[in-house]
Amino acid sequence: MVQFRKFDIDGRKKEKIVFQNQMLHYGLYVPRPEAYFFGDIPWHWHDEFEFGHILGGSMQYKTNHHEFILHEGDGIFINSGVLHYLHPLKPVEDVRLQSQFFDRSFLAGASGSILDIKYIAPVLEQRQLDAVPLYCSDAGSARFLEKMREGAELSIKGERFFELRLRSLFSELWEIVYSWAMDENKKGTGYNTLEDERIKQMLSYIQEHYNEKITVEDIASSIHISQRECYRLFQTSLGETPGEFMVSLRLQKAQELLRYTDKSVLEVAVETGFGTSSYFGKIFKQYHHITPKQYKKLNVDKSDRPVQDT
User: Fold this and answer.
1) 3-187 under CATH 2.60.120.280, yes or no
2) Angle at CA of residue 172, ends 174 and 24, nearest 5°
3) For residues 55 and 58, what is the distance between their CA atoms, to the nearest angstrom?
4) Cα–Cα distance between 137 and 26 in angstroms, integer?
5) What is the pTM assigned to this prediction?
6) In sequence order, which residues have a C-beta less than 8 Å from that of residue 253 and are 6 or more positions away?
């Protein structure tokens, strides 16, 4: 069973992964096709580990420490709690992404078990290991990617004992992930976890107040730093200014309202902090080369139900 993925992000910019089986804590997802046509998948993070696989086209992955370009056949591992951003590359209509999410209990069982303490926690705590690209041209990565494909196939078919086979398969992959973490540990390099937490806190503040008239001073004051330090953190972590991030967030929220509700363009403009429909239309067309009304007409399917892969 494959589930379409609507990016459900809470007030802290943390994505909420909903597993199809709450007793398994594993999910195979693909974003809705229209998600690729107008805009990026915004900065977010989730508690689950992620194996991503590019089934078509090309995708730019960014964490606040690394940047990768992945093409058809490539994949990526995203560690738990890592802030990341996805940008589909042209032609965007060719881009297809498949993601497998799982939490620590999927492999380790109960929290605090010997498996959790010995093999899962060391990876989760190794913050230098934010993401690992998997290029299909590399022999070692190709074997890893093949195992990922096997896992997706097991999930899609859903045959008897697939849960056991899936967990066994992912345990094999986890041995490799664990070795990556140990390699990073040997390097002895580290990231400033305080800066990572500060940028997350500021993103959370913007998420909670994006529909209001907020300034850089407001954002900086929310975590008791100067405006200059606020600008520095945004530039070094995200490569953009607070204002640029706020516009991209407002546009993302506007897209969701246009796609999934019957609200008018003016209502969307007011609700997302743009204020007037004329200003909203100007910014929307500047970024997406299409008007809000034209975009709304293109998105007639407002359902978000699971679909069976055939």
Assistant:
1) yes
2) 75
3) 9
4) 28
5) 0.82
6) 210, 211, 271, 272
Residues 100, 51: contact at Cβ < 8 Å?
Answer: yes
Among 84-98, 155-169, 197-211, 269-283, the least confident range = 84-98
Residue 111: phi and psi, rounded to 5, are -60, 135
- Sheet of strand 58-63: strand arrangement: 41-44, 84-88, 58-63, 67-71
Q: Which of 55, 101, 54, 107 is nearest to 82 (CA)?
A: 101
3-state secondary structure of 91: coil
| Residue ranges covered by each domain of the chain | 3-187, 193-298
pLDDT tens-digit profile of 96-151? Answer: 999 999 999 999 998 899 999 999 999 999 989 999 999 999 999 999 999 999 99
How many whole angstroms separate alpha carbon 13 and alpha carbon 91?
28
Q: How far apart are CA 199 and CA 266, in angstroms?
A: 31
Q: How many residues does the chain have?
A: 310
Its CATH architecture, for the domain 193-298, is Orthogonal Bundle (1.10)
As a whole number of angstroms, the distance between CA 265 and CA 283 comes to: 13
Backbone angles phi, psi at 77, to 5 degrees: -105, 130
